[in-house]
Structure formats: structure tokens, C-alpha cells
Design the sequence.
């Protein structure tokens, strides 16, 4: 049985530049900014990280990244630099390369840059499975702690704005024209966003225990999900966590507002659970933060539960054909499931036990 | 002390010769489509390794772990260049994602399992984390398209030897003795045996 705990979190997102400020406001679906892309007729929505009014605007991509990663790691309560650092990102420093910043020679060099930003002395890993990177990095870090390789690890989700990612999604016609509407009748695509998030993992017991997790890749879909793979992911996660479907009382879903993937996710949830547990999608609050989403959404969700807060549900009418509902108040849940889907047919889930205050 | 022992089912460390693409077509039975150069290179090594193990498919329980230094760097450069001129082509953008290789492997091997791209800055800690993180059999690789193209694969099965073996250190998971047929990790140290 896994005895690894999530001991602290930090988050910079479109909501606020840190978690403390995020939780001081009533949380409700956000209105994204619009970005005009060269070669694309219509502007596309985007959630950039909120800039703290007290902070001067950093002079470069590197300086901004350094400020953000140092801030979220401090917020997670990490004081040591000798544990393992697991980076979860799909685009790492593409923004710096696009800006022509001198140090951005190549992509993997970013691991050394990141270590330098943080004065990190322990090993640094980059897990890249696109949008499931965060949950998969959590599982890899848990395995390292369970094997005794290190006592503590930080999972650091980093997704910062870059033109290639936004233009790539726009070119594939995966973006919404205005906002994210998970499971809604008029859902029309994703809204991408920035996030930098840190989760501090430790073998020292604390409130949130990682109970189990699984990833299943289905090769039948290059960019979409499949019901069969989603079901296998749920089965494997619960088997490893030694849980039954009835014990899951809250599921943080992927539900990014994709016409196809939301329907597949709803179908799988309806097949697996009877009845479907309380559901929450954090995409209307954060946007889809890609490789950082696993860490960012967990940081926000667990913080909300700790503070007895719950976001105002989106007003978009849910698609009756999906037979699904989003929780409008915080459920009492001992076991929580976090699910993410990603490019390449990746389906990942993590079961977390709330051991109480 | 955490110990894991594996039988080496097959190793592919062949040099990347000029005809590797033709070999890939023969292994696949058709020309690969819409894949990055990095992905094709990885696919060639993986299929060669599986063939060497006498298999044509891969059980879903086998995890795939792919390490690299640069990933799909040529596709990323191409997509960045296209982005400077306007929107990247959808297939070019897809090719920047190294996870595309799991799709390709899944299609070729009938595999639906757990796969990760893992990059690390400390080879010793990186290999220890890879091996200690395995709970089942695994296909492990190092794939890079530059500076020197490489597609090294090792196929491991979790198994205990039924006899006493003479273990000796392995410099790297990807540089085992050609005659080694067993691999063991003890905490962070990798050992091999014939």
C-alpha cells in the first residue's frame, strides 16, 4: 500500500499569483482574455497567469518563470533542495525559444536551467505525456519515494504561454471561440491557460494520501479519448488503491468542454459508477493548463476542500444526453479521484484519500 | 534495501544504419505515416527488439519507458518555423509531442498500456527511478535523433532466477554486457549477470 502523502501545494494561475490570494475570492467561471493569432481569422480565448499588482513585470520569460517556480515551491512548504524534482510540462521553455532569449539553446537544457533557478541539488526529472504529465509525474515521484530513493519530492507543473502551442491547438480546430463549458450542450472546445503549480510529496503522514493510480494509453485515437481505455484506467486505479467504485465520492474530471472527449468521459463514468459520484471540472476556473493541469487542478481542489470552499458552478446548461451533473456544493468525500486525458491517447487517474484534518 | 530482479528478454543496440527506414517498413509491413523522425526511429528500435525476443505483440501489462535528451527536436524546430510564418500544420504540431510514439507502438504491437517519456539530469538517479518504479515487465529505451541517432531498447521481465548468479556492476541500463541475461537493481545500483 502506498504511504506517500501530498503535504503541501502552491499554485499560480489565472485566478491569482498564489493560492492564498486565490482562496480569498469567491471562485466562479472566468472570462478569458482573447489572443489574435497571425494566420487565424478569429481571436482565441486564453487564460494567462494573473500578475500580482505589487510585483514588477519580469523582464524576460526566464525571469518570469524563475519568479513563478520559486513562489509556488515556497508556497508548498518545501524548504529543502535535496529531494527529487519532477517537472510536468508539455511545452517547457518554448516561450523563451520563441522570444529568442539567449540561454534557450534547446529543450532539455531547461532541466539544468530549472535546477539553477531553484538552486536545486537533488535529481531533476521531466515527465512528458502531454496533458497527463502532472498525474503521471505524481505517480513516478510516489514510486521513487516508495522505493526509498528519496524522502521528499516536488511535482512541478509548468505551462507558460507560447505561440506554438496556442497556434497548434487552433490549427487542429480544438479551441473554443469564447469559453470553456464542461459537459454543456453548447460546449465548443478548449480554452488553454497558463499555470505553475507545486505539489510536495512526502512519506511523513499528512492529510492527503496517494492511494493509487494508473495510466492507460489507447492507440486507436491520436488526440482523443476512448471509453474502453477510460474504464480500464478506472479499474486499474481502484484495484491498486484497494477501493470499490462505491467508495469514490468525488471525481475531478478532465471535462475541458471538448464536444467528443466530454461525451466519452461521461459515457465511461456512467458505465463504471452507479450512481456517478459528485463531479467537478476546474477548467472554467483555470482553463486547460495542459502538462501542468494534473498538478494545478489537484492543488486547487485540495486547497478548496481544506478551506471548505467550493466554486460557483458554471451557468451553461448541461447536455441532457450525457446524463451527468456537476456538484454545486462540496461533497463529503474520503476518497477522491483525479482524472486527466491527453494527446497520444493517454488516460490517467489518481486516487487520493482524505485522512481528515 | 529495495531490490528488483529482471530477466533480459532482448536487447537492441544496433547502430542506426542508412537503411533503417527500409527495415522499419519491413517490420511494420507498411510505410509509417504522419510520424516524426524521432518517433520513426524509436519505432524501428522497439520493433527490432520485440522481434529479437521472438514476439510480434506486447502484453498490455508491459510498461514502456522512453528516455531521451532532445526528444522530437527536428519536428519541434519545424513547427516553430511554421509558427513564425503563420499556423503550424496540424500533423507537424502533433509530431512535436513525443507521446505520439506510444500511439505508433500501440498500433503496431496491439498494446494498450502505461507509457512515459522521461528525461533526467542525473543518469544514476534517473535509471534507478526507472527500474525501481517498475512493478511489471517493461520495455525501456533511449531514443535520440541527434547529435548521433540512437534507438537503444531493452526488454525486461520481472522474474527471480532459479539458481545463484554471479552478479557484477552494469555501468548503465543501456550499456549492459552483450552476454548478460539478468539485470538487478539494489537501491540505486544496477547489476547484471550472464
Sequence:
Amino acid at each position: 500500500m502506498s504511504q506517500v502523502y501530498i503535504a503541501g501545494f502552491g499554485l499560480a494561475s489565472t485566478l491569482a499569483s498564489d493560492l492564498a490570494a486565490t482562496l480569498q475570492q469567491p471562485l466562479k467561471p472566468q472570462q478569458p482574455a482573447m489572443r489574435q493569432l497571425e494566420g487565424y481569422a478569429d481571436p482565441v480565448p486564453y487564460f494567462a497567469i494573473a500578475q500580482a499588482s505589487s510585483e514588477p513585470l519580469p523582464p524576460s520569460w526566464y525571469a518570469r518563470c524563475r519568479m513563478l517556480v520559486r513562489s509556488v515551491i515556497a508556497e508548498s512548504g518545501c524548504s529543502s533542495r535535496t529531494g527529487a524534482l519532477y517537472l510536468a510540462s508539455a511545452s517547457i521553455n518554448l516561450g523563451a525559444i520563441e522570444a529568442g532569449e539567449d540561454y534557450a539553446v534547446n529543450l532539455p537544457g531547461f532541466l539544468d536551467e530549472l535546477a539553477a533557478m531553484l538552486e536545486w541539488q537533488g535529481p531533476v526529472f521531466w515527465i512528458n505525456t502531454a496533458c497527463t504529465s502532472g498525474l503521471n509525474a505524481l505517480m513516478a515521484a510516489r514510486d521513487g519515494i516508495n522505493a526509498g530513493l528519496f524522502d521528499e519530492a516536488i511535482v512541478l507543473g509548468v505551462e507558460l504561454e507560447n505561440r506554438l502551442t496556442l497556434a497548434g491547438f487552433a490549427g487542429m480546430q480544438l479551441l473554443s471561440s469564447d469559453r470553456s463549458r464542461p459537459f454543456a450542450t453548447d460546449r465548443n472546445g478548449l480554452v488553454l491557460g497558463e499555470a505553475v503549480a507545486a505539489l510536495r510529496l512526502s512519506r511523513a503522514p499528512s492529510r492527503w494520501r496517494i492511494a493509487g493510480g494508473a495510466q492507460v494509453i489507447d492507440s486507436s485515437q491520436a488526440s482523443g479519448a476512448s471509453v474502453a481505455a477510460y474504464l480500464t484506467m478506472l479499474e486499474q486505479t481502484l484495484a491498486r488503491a484497494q477501493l470499490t467504485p462505491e467508495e469514490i465520492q468525488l471525481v475531478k474530471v478532465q471535462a475541458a468542454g471538448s464536444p467528443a472527449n466530454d461525451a466519452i468521459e461521461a459515457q465511461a463514468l456512467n458505465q463504471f459508477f452507479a450512481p456517478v459520484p459528485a463531479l467537478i471540472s476546474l477548467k472554467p476556473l483555470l482553463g486547460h493548463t495542459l502538462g501542468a493541469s494534473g498538478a494545478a487542478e489537484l492543488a486547487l481542489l485540495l486547497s478548496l476542500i481544506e478551506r471548505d470552499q467550493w466554486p460557483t458552478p458554471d451557468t451553461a446548461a448541461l447536455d441532457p444526453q450525457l446524463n451527468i451533473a456537476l456538484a454545486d456544493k462540496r461533497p463529503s468525500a474520503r476518497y477522491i479521484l483525479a482524472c486527466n486525458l491527453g494527446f497520444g491517447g493517454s488516460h490517467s487517474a489518481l486516487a487520493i484519500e482524505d485522512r481528515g484534518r | 534495501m529495495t531490490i528488483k530482479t529482471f530477466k533480459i528478454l532482448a536487447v537492441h543496440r544496433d547502430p542506426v544504419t542508412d537503411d533503417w527506414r527500409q527495415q522499419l517498413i519491413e517490420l511494420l509491413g507498411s510505410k509509417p505515416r504522419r510520424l516524426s523522425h524521432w518517433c520513426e526511429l524509436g519505432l524501428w528500435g522497439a520493433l527490432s527488439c520485440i522481434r529479437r525476443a521472438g514476439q510480434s505483440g506486447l502484453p498490455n501489462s508491459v510498461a514502456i519507458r522512453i528516455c531521451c535528451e532532445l526528444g522530437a527536436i527536428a519536428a519541434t524546430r519545424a513547427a516553430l518555423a511554421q509558427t513564425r510564418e503563420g499556423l503550424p500544420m496540424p500533423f507537424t504540431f502533433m509530431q512535436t509531442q513525443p507521446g505520439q510514439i506510444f500511439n505508433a507502438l500501440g498500433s503496431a504491437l496491439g498494446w494498450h498500456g502505461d507509457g512515459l517519456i522521461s528525461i533526467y539530469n542525473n543518469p544514476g538517479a534517473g535509471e534507478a527511478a526507472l527500474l525501481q518504479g517498475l512493478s511489471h515487465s517493461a520495455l525501456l529505451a533511449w531514443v535520440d535523433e541527434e547529435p548521433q541517432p540512437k534507438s537503444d531498447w531493452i526488454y525486461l521481465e520481472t522474474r527471480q532466477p532459479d539458481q545463484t548468479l554471479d552478479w557484477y556492476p552494469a555501468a548503465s541500463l543501456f550499456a549492459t554486457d552483450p552476454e548478460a541475461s539478468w539485470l538487478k537493481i539494489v537501491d540505486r545500483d544496477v547489476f547484471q549477470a550472464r
Remarks:
- Chain B touches chain A through 49 residues (CB under 8 Å).
- The longest strand of chain B covers residues 3-12.
- Residues 110 and 173 of chain B are 26 Å apart (CA to CA).
- The mean pLDDT of chain B is 94.
